[in-house]
Design a protein that fits this description.
The relative contact order is 0.15. Helix 1 packs antiparallel against helix 2 and helix 2 runs antiparallel to helix 3. By secondary structure, the protein is an all-alpha fold.
């Protein structure tokens, strides 16, 4: 049963990674691209790390996975914000 749960989490993480990739390729400007890659990419990574924690069922692995997810959740929005600010500073205004 644990393998099924971990498999579902990995598949969901892969689906969100593909969604982030499609958003990165298809969206028209930098602000939309960074939004898609940040949100879906963070969720995909979090789901895959949750699958790792579920599969191994060890405290050490779970703590490392939680630390990695917290790091992603804290740094990805900051990085996206800085990319957006740099884009606007270079006069790349969003399309309307």
């Amino acid at each position: 049963m644990i393998e099924v749960i971990a498999g579902i989490l990995v598949i969901l993480g892969g689906i969100f990674a593909v969604i982030a990739t499609v958003g990165l390729i298809k969206l028209p400007d930098v602000l939309m691209r960074m939004h898609a890659s940040t949100k879906a990419g963070t969720l995909a990574s979090s789901l895959i790390l949750a699958a790792v924690a579920v599969e191994f069922q060890e405290i050490g692995v779970a703590v490392k996975c939680v630390a990695a997810v917290l790091f992603l959740v804290l740094t990805a929005p900051l990085a996206a914000h800085m990319i957006g600010r740099a884009s606007l500073d270079r006069k790349n205004h969003p399309r309307t």
